[in-house]
Every structure is written in C-alpha cells, then in structure tokens.
Amino acid sequence: MNQKMLVLTVLLGLAAGGAICADLTVPPSDGPFPVTVLVYMLDIDEIDSSQQTFTANVFLKYEWNDPRLAHEGDGPVIKATDEIWHPHLQILNQQKLWKTFDEHFEVFPDGHVSYRQRVWGDFSQPMDLRDYPADDQVLTVQLVASGHTPDQVELVASTEAVHAISADLSVTDFDITGSEVVVEPYSPMDSGRGVASIRSSFFANRKVGYFLVKVIIPLILIVMMSWSVFWIDPAEGGTQIGVATTTMLTLIAFRFAIDSSLPKISYLTRLDTFVMASTVLVFLSLFEVVITSRLAKTGRHERAMRLDQWSRLIFPGAFVALTVLALT
C-alpha cells in the first residue's frame, strides 16, 4: 500500500511539474497582457523609390514582466525562445533581413523579461511619387503579435528613447524629420478584430537640390537655347533649322542621360510633367522655324518676322506657366 502511495505521489508530482512548464507557454494573465516595444532606427542606408523599398539598420527591444519566471539569482538568466512565453512579434513589411544578435531572452530575478535584437535589411514601403522630386514619404516598421489579439496582448510604445532615430544617417537624398508610433490592431482584409500591432513611422523629405542642379536647370537652359531661333532672320532658314534641330537632339540625349535616375512607375510625376512640357515646347520651336522659313521663301518675310516676334513672348510665357504648374 505504501509503495502504491509513493508511486502515486511521484506521478502527481511529475504531472504538476509538467503543468507548471506548460503554463510558461501561455500568457501570464487572461486579460490584455502589456508588452513594451522599442523600435529605434540606427541607420537608413537607402530609399529606393522605383522598388518601393528602403534599407535600414533597426534596433528592437521588447520587455514585459512574468512573475512565474522570478528566481533567486543575483542577475539575469538566459532563456531560449522555446522555453518561455513571448508575444512572437514579427516585422510585417520585412523583405530580406539579417539578425546580428543571438535569439534569447534575459530573465531578471523579479520576473522582468527583456529581448534585444538588431536587424539589417530591406523593408517594403508603398510610396506615392506624384510630387517627385519634391515628395515626402513615410517609412514604416510594423510589428504584429502573431496569433494574439489586442484582448490577449497589449503592445505599448516604449518611452525609453525620446527620439526613436539616430542623429547620423547614411541616406543622402532625404532628410528624416521625425517619427511617430501608432498602436492599433492589424487585419489584412480590414475585417474582424485583427492581431495586436504597433507601427513606427519615420518621416522623410526628399532633397530637391540634386534634381535642381542635375536635371531642372540644365533642362531650362536647353529650352532657352531653342528660343534663340526667334532672333535669327527667317531668311536664313538653314541656320534656324540647324539650331532648332541641334536643340532637339540635345534634349533627346539629355533625356536618355537622366532616365536611369528617375523612378520607373506607371503614372506621371511632377518631374515627368516638366520634362514632357519642355520637350513639347522645344519641338514646337522647331515647327515654328519650319513655318517662318517657308513664309520667308514665299515672299512673306514680314509675316515671318511678326511670327518670330510673337514667339519671343509666347514661348517664354508658356514655359514659365508650365513650369509653375508642373513643379509647384
């Protein structure tokens, strides 16, 4: 009888121990369990408008308190990811990422749990480029608690860092002006309660200086060069047509040169509109030269001169108007 009682006691003890271990794989409480999240932008290497991605170096930190993990040690103990409960946070918009820290949790004597990770790689980011190159973009890093609704896990933005972005960034063609953290459920089909989610947004303003020097000003000079034909005597039709043709070929070569630096998208940007308007005006100046040359050759020299005089006003005025409409 005593032997049976001993066996029963051992079995009950093993069952109780198994239950305790099993408890560590579920949230510590039934209600919304708070998990503090920090997303710190260490660096942004590149923002690719054509691919709708950005390359970044991000530091992640998750913290919560699990009283079941309290221990008698003097400092933190290391736990593997499959040994304790954790919110299974995943980066929703990741593409190719590399983790540089070991995957483990630090458990402090009071049950405080801390997870730190540094990730580097590409993040997908839909961009609206209609205002390119004077566009503003929002870069996001969105975390979701896989399998946990907001009723089970409450993601809380960390107040550890006042500004969640480094002061020195590698990206050269954007100014990063600030950041914002939003906590809201995520549902891929905008239906149902969704899963717990936190989104860190970083505001980026494109620097216009490069495009002003490399694209806009040279294009303005090419268009102005096409106006020189209006000051050449229509009787010199060969000279007029030669200048107009040279301007057109210069513009075509310039467009080929800048094409690789422009985003390849299905809709027109402000810069596309400006380039197209400039191309049309240069072509119209060539067309005007053909008309005035024909008028001069058929004895209507005065009419050709008047057309040139009107063109000296109409073409610059039209170019200024189109530039304002396209770039502002």
What keyword list fits this structure?
alpha+beta; Acetylcholine Binding Protein, Chain: A; 328 residues; single chain
Low-confidence stretches: 6-22
Secondary structure tally: strands: 11
Note the gap between the termini: 94 Å
Mean pLDDT, nearest integer?
A: 87
Query: What string gives the helices and strands in order?
Result: HEEEEEEEEEEEHHHH
CATH architecture of the largest domain: Distorted Sandwich
Q: Give the C-level CATH assignment of the largest domain.
A: Mainly Beta
Number of helices: 5
Describe the structure.
- The protein is of the alpha+beta class.
- It folds into 2 domains: 28-207, Neurotransmitter-gated ion-channel ligand-binding domain (Acetylcholine Binding Protein, Chain: A, Distorted Sandwich); 210-327, Neurotransmitter-gated ion-channel transmembrane domain (Methane Monooxygenase Hydroxylase, Chain G, domain 1).
- Helix content is 36%, strand content 28%.
- The protein contains 5 helices and 11 strands.
- Strands 1, 2, 3, 5, 6, 7 and 9 form a 7-stranded mixed beta sheet that branches. The chain has a 4-stranded antiparallel beta sheet with strand order 4-8-11-10, with no helix packed on it.
- The longest helix is centred in the C-terminal third of the chain and has 28 residues, at 270-297.
- The radius of gyration is 33 Å and the shape is rod-shaped.
- The chain starts with a helix and ends with a helix.
- Mean pLDDT is 87; it is low at 6-22.
Protein topology:
Layout: H1 2-23, E1 33-48, E2 53-65, E3 77-79, E4 89-91, E5 94-99, E6 105-107, E7 112-124, E8 136-145, E9 153-157, E10 174-183, E11 197-206, H2 209-226, H3 237-259, H4 270-297, H5 301-327
